[in-house]
Every structure is written in structure tokens, then in C-alpha cells.
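_Per-residue structure_
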Amino acid sequence: MFINFLRRDKRISILLAVLRVYVGYTWLVAGWGKIAAGNFDASSFLQGAAAKATGEHPLVQGWWAVFLKNVAIPNVDVFNTLIPYGEFLVGIGLLIGCFTKTAVFFGMMMNFSYMFSGTTSTNPQLALLSVFILVSAMNAGRYGADGMIMPILKEKLFANKTNKKTDAA
């Protein structure tokens, strides 16, 4: 019942748009700050996160530390590009409401990646708000670019399909 309310009610789409813009602005500012500084380097963060996987009560799970040590740290140059531009693009997508579900999904992936690495900051809050945006399906983008683009895409993609019933003889 609650999920249908989030997905169908036009009144809640206004609140969802406010949440979407807030989350988008947060991602945009974080990404732009890293891009504008021009010297973003995630290597110390990644190494620090991998180091948090030791001790009696580790902050980072062992499986995540294996990923960090074997994938992220050796490819830090790729992550130095993906992180700031990913944050920036997620922010743009959410701010204008374009491909909202895709943008919020990738934002949540980054939130969980940061939390898996032993940091909190605003990540739990953003992840929780993102759940509402993701579950609401198209309603979060109703007052955004999705509200204009998706009906046209659906019309173009499904225009040639007919609902013919074939007789199985």
C-alpha cells in the first residue's frame, strides 16, 4: 500500500522532487569540489580503509578489504576519475530529474561503497533518502526531465508493437 502511494500519488511526487533535488545537490557539490580542485587522489582513503579491516572489531569487512587491495588500490587512477565525475553526474541527473532511477541507483552504490570503507558522514542519510526515490519509480521524476522524456520514449519504443492474440491451433 505504501509503495503504491509512493509510485502513484501526484501529491507525494512534489515531496519526492524536493528529496531528489536535495540528494542531487549534495552529490553535485561533492563531485564538483573534487573536479574543481583538480588534485583528487583517493589512494590514502583506499589504503586507510583497507587498514581498518584488522583488529578485534574491524570497521571494514574482510571481503571489502580484499576488493580494495586487489582492485581499487592497484587501479587508483581509474577511481580518481570515476569518483568525482560519478558524483557530479549523479548530482546532475537527480537535480534535473533525468534518468532518476539510474542516477539514484549509482548514488546509492557510492554511498554503500563509502560506508563499506568505514566512513559514515552523510552517507547513511543519503542512502535512506535514495531508497524512497528508487522505490517511487517514475513518480520522483514526474516534475523533472523524466516527466517529459519518458512518455515520448515509451511512445517511440512501443509504437510498433501490437496486442495481437495468436490462436494456438
